[in-house]
Amino acid sequence: MNGKTALVLGATGGIGGEMTRRLLAGGWRVRALVRTVEASGRLPGVDCHVGDAMVREDVVEAAAGAAVIVHAVNPPGYRNWGQLVLPMIDNTLAAARTHGARIVLPGTVYNYGPDALPLIAEDAPQRPATRKGAIRVAMERRLEDAAQAGEARALIVRAGDFFGPRAGNNWFSQGIVAPGARPTTIQDPNTPGVGHQWAYLPDVAETMVRLIEQDGLEDFARFHMAGHWDPDGRAMIAAVVRALSAPAVRVKPLPWALLRLAALVAETPREMMEMRYLWKQPVRLDGAKLAARLGGEPHTPLDVAVRETLRGMGCV
């Protein structure tokens, strides 16, 4: 291992930013690849290299001396996934091969189609029902193939829908509460009675760091987080109402029909509609393997997590 040095790709984003904060708090030297000099001003304590995750030489150079590469970079607003996502993971793999670093990838439930539901273990078949899911499967297959060939090591931690005080664009901020002001209305994207899984970003970052700091981690390791399971789709909305201390706040269904119309002309609504199947049926990740490995999963109580999320969003 090349000491406690980590390169974070996507350090100004949700999971990348949370990983950066947790690594710094744990005594790691953190390096970030940022697009502009101005972005480095938002990352105090981080060794920032200006470059582009789409340029292989930039990633390889920034990864010099790193034991870990956190691959938390995604095209903004779901744009150009097909053209950008796989070249970026290929560049990260090239850097890992060159410097002997372990890649850490936040996983998603997009990899799974209806045949893997409702309770998903790490070895469940990955037969996605969407284009974005197929891209995520290809990403993970690249990592697994490289590990089996002895060329690189990888850790994938899969979790439910992200939320947190600095989570960026996600279903919580796009589908439930708009950031920037105290809400007068809460939207509910759930299908009544259908469970949904959430993941508090500080818990995800804590989990990843604990795993990479363990001795004996497999060359290709994959874990699922239990996170926050909402068994009937009502627990998260109720937690938001409690955090706002406004029991009379209006709760209305997410206008899926309007979103479908918007999807005809805009890419973000189009990508959101592609994922609607995850709100029509229960999708739950089995966290038993992770809990056994760590002796318990990092888990912030839901009310605390929601309150901190709303505070970070400027809603309370």
TrEMBL record:
Residues 6-214 form the NAD-dependent epimerase/dehydratase domain. It comes from the Bacteria. InterPro entries: Epimerase_deHydtase, NAD(P)-bd_dom_sf, NAD(P)-dependent_oxidoreduct. SUPFAM superfamilies: NAD(P)-binding Rossmann-fold domains. This is NAD-dependent epimerase/dehydratase domain-containing protein. It comes from Caulobacter segnis.
